């Protein structure tokens, strides 16, 4: 299963980089110069996201803006400055960089209390929040929460839509 996931991820990354040659160049620069950075550089975010279904991947791609999906995440000012200088200033390529100091994930208030979420799931077919449909490292999750509120977006099923239509 792990091998299949790695193959799927490699194919997805290949497709993403084929569609955006500059993004591939930035990724290659980061990958080839990891020793120059103080901390791990994450991204582009879309390459860090692991979902267990095509449907979940589609939800993420529909909700999260493209500029966020194609951005890189750094954990300190020095890495931000180095990446910006090397990519934007020297190579003249566009890049979106988000900084998550120390890679720390901030605590968030739940969308609703557990009783209400259980009611939404049981009575209306809600699956959960968008954040619950994928896995990413904490620094990437922090950016997705800040930029796209993935912890507050509900994901439903056909049963959810039927429940909405009845009102």
UniProtKB/TrEMBL annotation:
Keyword Coiled coil: yes
Keywords, ordered alphabetically: Coiled coil
Record-level GO BP terms: double-strand break repair via homologous recombination
One Gene Ontology cellular component annotation held by this UniProt entry: Smc5-Smc6 complex
Superkingdom of source: Eukaryota
GO-annotated molecular function: single-stranded DNA binding
Record PANTHER family: STRUCTURAL MAINTENANCE OF CHROMOSOMES PROTEIN 5 (PTHR45916:SF1)
Name the UniProt record assigns to this protein: Structural maintenance of chromosomes protein 5
The species this protein was found in: Pseudictyota dubia
């Amino acid at each position: 299963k792990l091998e299949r996931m790695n193959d799927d991820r490699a194919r997805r990354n290949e497709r993403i980089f084929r569609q955006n040659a500059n993004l591939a160049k930035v990724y290659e620069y980061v990958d080839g110069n990891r020793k120059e950075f103080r901390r791990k550089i994450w991204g582009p975010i879309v390459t860090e996201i692991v979902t267990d279904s095509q449907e979940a991947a589609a939800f993420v791609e529909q909700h999260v803006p493209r500029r966020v999906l194609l951005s890189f995440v750094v954990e300190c000012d020095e890495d931000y400055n180095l990446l910006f200088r090397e990519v934007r200033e020297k190579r003249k390529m566009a890049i979106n960089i988000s900084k998550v100091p120390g890679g720390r994930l901030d605590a968030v208030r739940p969308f609703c209390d557990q009783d209400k979420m259980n009611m939404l799931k049981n009575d209306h077919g809600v699956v959960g929040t968008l954040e619950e449909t994928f896995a990413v490292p904490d620094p990437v999750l922090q950016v997705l929460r800040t930029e796209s509120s993935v912890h507050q977006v509900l994901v439903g099923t056909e049963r959810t839509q039927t429940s909405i239509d009845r009102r």
